[in-house]
């Protein structure tokens, strides 16, 4: 399991009783399977709610991002006997979840949390704040109610437990965060130290799925557009060092980025985006992001949907 260093003690004057208080009334969660190392099986697929398709035209990995129904794969993988059995057993699951289980591939690559995690490993810790458990992460909470502006984006992750035949990780928790449309991170960048928008925690439902409502992140120098996330064993362990199952990032598709960055408010992203490719990115470059590339659909006017199968 990934272990985070103990965060330095810092006062949080706007924090109330924290995440543990938020979770005190929730039901107890089932124990999850032991976390295994990265696999070497077939390619992990991306998943997404349906809509008008957007797919990459210049990167081979991005070609896997053609729009499909929720939690479906953009790249197929041979069905293992364990995955097939799990899919067969999931009689109450949605067709899209059944397909996600059947196409469960290699475990999500472990990546850096970056310099702005806000999880206590590098300065401030939003996970201590009352209100961090939420689906809509566009606005700050606590002492600020500022709202990040941008093209609407809905992100859905389907968590699958590789140790138990690719069954849904019901009761796991995901902390997601990303930059705003100008490439800035709340809690860290100048003028945003008292903001905590574009950060939030969700608990996986019975299908192992979490959904966040947010805005499309910008492109900043040196990085392909992305969303950070951490997967925890349970909601109650979301703040406990050593309880992180996976730290990774979602890569957004080239076609969607080009469309969004041509719209008002994303002028700096339009300049930065052409300077970095998936292959030259320092996170996704080793494999072109094939295991982390979201399936995406939508439009600037209607908003976008992005999804990914996350096997841990």
Notes on the structure:
This protein is an alpha+beta fold. It has a single domain (18-26, 38-278, 292-311), classed as Aromatic compound dioxygenase (Protocatechuate 3,4-Dioxygenase, subunit A), CATH 2.60.130. Helix content is 12%, strand content 19%. It has helices at 18-23, 81-89, 95-102, 254-261, 267-272; strands at 53-54, 152-161, 167-168, 173-177, 199-203, 209-215, 226-232, 244-251, 295-299, 303-311. Strands 1, 2, 3, 6, 9 and 10 form a six-stranded mixed sheet that branches. It has a four-stranded antiparallel sheet with strand order 5-4-7-8, with no helix packed on it. It is globular and about 45 Å long. The N and C termini lie close together (10 Å). Residues 1-91 have low confidence and may be disordered.
Q: Tags for this entry?
A:
312 residues; alpha+beta; Protocatechuate 3,4-Dioxygenase, subunit A; 5 helices
In brief:
With 312 residues, this protein is an alpha+beta fold.
Per-chain topology:
Elements: H1 18-23, E1 53-54, H2 81-89, H3 95-102, E2 152-161, E3 167-168, E4 173-177, E5 199-203, E6 209-215, E7 226-232, E8 244-251, H4 254-261, H5 267-272, E9 295-299, E10 303-311
Helix pairs in contact: 2-3
Main CATH class: Mainly Beta
Give helix and strand order, one letter per element, not per position: HEHHEEEEEEEHHEE
The total domain count is 1
Fraction in helix: 10-25%
* Radius of gyration using CA atoms only: 18 Å
Q: Helical stretch count?
A: 5
CATH topology: Protocatechuate 3,4-Dioxygenase, subunit A
Structural class by secondary-structure content: alpha+beta
Termini Cα gap: 10 Å
Question: What is the arithmetic mean of pLDDT?
Answer: 77
Beta-strand content estimate: 15-25%
CATH-scheme architecture: Sandwich
Shape: globular
